[in-house]
Every structure is written in C-alpha cells, then in structure tokens.
From TrEMBL:
Lineage, uppermost ranks: Bacteria, Bacillati, Actinomycetota, Actinomycetes, Kitasatosporales
Anti-sigma-K factor RskA N-terminal domain location: 6-40
Protein name: Regulator of SigK
Membrane recorded as keyword: yes
Gene3D superfamilies (UniProt xref): Anti-sigma factor, zinc-finger domain (1.10.10.1320)
GO annotation, biological process: regulation of translation
Any Pfam family: RskA_C
Amino acid sequence: MRTIDLHTLTGAYALHALDDEDRAAFEHHLRDCPSCAQEVRELAATAVRLGIAAATPPPPALKDEVMRRIAAVRQEPPPTAAPARSAVRRAGAARLPRWALAACLAAAAALGGTTVWQYDRARDARAEASRAEQRTQRIAEVVAAPDARTRTEALGGGARATVVVSQSRDEAVFAASGLAEPPSGKVYQLWFDDGGTMRPAGLMDPARGSGAVLMEGRVGDAAGMGVTVEPAGGSERPTSAPLALVEFPV
C-alpha cells in the first residue's frame, strides 16, 4: 500500500475507481472506521441518484432494429491469402483504359473538398467528445469529494432535483429527472442564489429533461440554486418565475 491517507479514498471507493491493492487496504480500514463507512454509503447513494437522473430509456424500436441488422449483415468469409500487391496493381492498370484513369483522377479531385469537410467535421467531433469527457470527469470529482453534500427535492409534475456541493472544490452539480422538455426556443437555465440575487450557472440540454450538469462558476457565498425557463442561449437575469429553488446542503 502506498503512503495514502485512507480517509481520502471514500469517493474513489464508492465509484469503484480503486485498483485491487488499494481497494483491499481500504476495505480493511473500513471495518474499523464508522465515519468512512457512513461517508461511503452517502456517496454511493448519490452516485446512484445521479445515474438514475441521467439515464434515458431506449427507444421501443431499438430491439427490432438490432435484430433486423443482425439478420441482414453477412458473416465475414474466412481469410484467404491475398495476391501480391504489385501484381494486383499491374493487372488493374492493364485493364483500365486511359479514359477510365482520367475519370478516376477527376473524381478524386472533385472529392477533395468533401474529404476536407469530413476531416473538419471529424476533428470538431473529437474536440466535443474530449470536452464532454472532461465535464464528466469534473462531475465525478465533485460527487467523490470527501466533503460532498447532497440534497434532493421534489419538483412539480413528478420531477426531482438533486444538488451535490463540495465546498473544498467550490463547485456544485445539479441533476434532474422527469423534467418536461421546455417549449420550442426555450432552455432550462441554472442560477446560483446569492442572497436573493440570481447569478447565471449554465444551461441544460433543451432536448433532455434529465441529466447531470456541472454548474458553471464557483459556489462562493451562494446559499442555494434555482431553475428557470429562458430564451435559447440563456439570459443575464431570470425572465420567468423559478421552477425550482433548492437550498444548498450544509
């Protein structure tokens, strides 16, 4: 076991992020440390709530589509020895007349612009995936922080909201489940409640009524948070009555 303070591993243990050696040492420590055991139970329950909040049911047609594709996709034939590459090139070049070679070159030139466009799209997709991975990592770090505290409130229409706050990280995570999709051209906007003054804290995906969001900005002296429906792109100040007002857990 490396020189690690075992009391700091509660979050990583609750998220199953320890290797075999550290997990065995922490479980041995857990048997004699009631405070760590309690903290692990609380963090594990929070992780479950966040997972439930972010979960979305698969579309009803998904199973039929998977089965259809299984039946339609041909099994790959057994591998066979390929002829020498140089021989293939010579045979192909001999069969292609000059006009066909010219047509191939023209098509390759025409597709050049499409290739560049596809490359740019792929690069943008990789960048967005990297940003999403970083946001997910930060959400996990807030939930797993040793001082993470959680509060869950029931919202209207059967929706629920969960807030996780870490004072040491000065960050908060908001998770919702069961929220109806906002009206067209509108988004859900999050706010920090600074003693009655609402400070913007980011937007939720308008297409999802569920999910976990790392609130933008520092918690600071905020005593709670709110959710409103705002025009697409968000607002500097709330323009509608709050759907939810949740006090931060102490």
